Every structure is written in structure tokens, then in C-alpha cells.
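Worked Example 4.2. Consider the chain below.
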Amino acid sequence: LTIGTIDSLCSSIVPQLICKYHQYHPHVSVSITTDTIEGLLKMLKNNDIDFAYLVDKQLLDTDWLKIYQFKEEVAFVASCHHPICKMKQPTIQDILAYPIILTEKDASYRRLLEEKLHEDHLEIKPFIQSKNTDLLLELLKLDQYISFLPKYILENDLKNKKIIQINIPDYQIDVYRQLLCHKNKWLSHEMKSFFQLIKENH
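Applying the procedure from the previous section yields the following C-alpha cells:
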């Protein structure tokens, strides 16, 4: 079973899925690779991976079979000790006044954020950019930075209120967690079992 995914899913959701899958199918060897959205779709087209598990705007292409889709919210976030958390109604200008840390430029949700900022004649210049979302989470906890990340990455920290969501009404951006395979892909029993596991554990 060959899975292509993005870094944020690989470090947050995929480990639990793989663990559960292994319990049901201990004989199946699983290979996981990470790449950009464009890279994953190219690998899918070339049959280098069985399916792609990614987060982006809704992808509609006759070449792909969409097995699963789940809406996700992306939000500005900061440590509960960050000064912006003391503001009653922060604005996007308030956000941009602080050091920002973001995923790399070709990440889907960063691209959507920059498109929205461009519409408002604004620009974001991150202090740090990295595809490693674990690094961004650790930096957030240093109380100096603001980031823009999918909430599935932050689930535990949001629950225990170590990380706070900063609500900017005009910048509530939704993306979609999607599982794609090539329309001509033959789906084995083991593949279908993994698909079902994702649907049951969203």
C-alpha cells in the first residue's frame, strides 16, 4: 500500500490511521511519502502512489476518483500568552503587525490566505516558513508568533487552551481533506479497507 500525503497530515492524522490499519492487516507493507499537492498529483498520474491524501480547495478533475472529502477550517492561531490574545476584536492589520510563521509557499492553505490578502491589497511576510508543521507548533509555544494552520493539527492544544484561535471573520478559510486515486486504478481489498478506515475516523 503506497500512500502519498502532505506533511501536516503525515504528522497529525496519518500515524493513528496506520496503527489501526496494521491491527487489521498486519501482513500489508505500507509505504508513505510526502510532497506538495502538485507533486502528489503528478505521482498519482504516473501510478507512483496508490492514492493521495491531501488538503486543498475542492479538486475537481476527471482523471481522479474522489473517495472521501471532509471540510476543514484553517485559522490564525497563537499561544494563549501572546499579546494579541488580550485584544477583544483583533483585525487582520493587528495580525500582520506581529511576526508570522507559515508553512512553505506552495502549501494549499497558505496559498488561499495569500489570495485573500491580495484581494484586500495586503501582503504577508513570514518571519519563518517551513513545511514542518511540528516545528511551527513548537515555535508557537514560545509565545512570540502567530501562524495560520488547519485546526486538525492543533486539536489537542486547542482543547487544553495552550493555543488560541484568533477569529478574523473575513478570513475564515475552509479547505477540504480529500482522498484521491486515479480513475483507472484497480482497488484491492486492502486499499478499500484503508479507505473505509479514513471515513470512519475523520
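The radius of gyration is 18 Å. DSSP finds eight helices and nine strands in the chain. Compare this with Example 4.1 before moving on.
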